[in-house]
Write a structure and sequence with these properties.
This protein is mostly helical. 60% of the residues lie in helices and 0% in strands. Helix 1 runs antiparallel to helix 2. The longest helix has 25 residues.
Length: 84
């Protein structure tokens, strides 16, 4: 697995965990263990997203920063570059 794929996989894992924890919390809103699990993966997603974006650019159009539109630079996150 390339570095790019590994970084994207880390984003996907953390995002999946957050979605699942959110669904659980919808029916168990006072479960402290679930809330802590959610917070842990929320931090993991922030770190994983920052690491990916620092190396390969924005994951979503909402993450665009700077003085110009970068979303369309290079391959999209879900596309494999020819050299990956």
């Amino acid at each position: 697995m390339s570095d790019r794929e590994n970084l994207l996989r880390n984003v996907q894992i953390a995002d999946f965990a957050l979605v699942e924890a959110g669904l659980f919390l919808d029916t168990h809103p006072t479960d402290q263990n679930a809330l802590e699990y959610f917070r842990t993966y929320q931090k993991e997603l922030e770190k994983a997203t920052a690491a990916y974006q620092a190396a390969y650019g924005p994951l979503t159009a909402r993450a665009n920063e700077g003085g110009r539109w970068k979303w369309t630079d290079g391959p999209a996150p879900w596309e494999r570059a020819a050299n990956v």
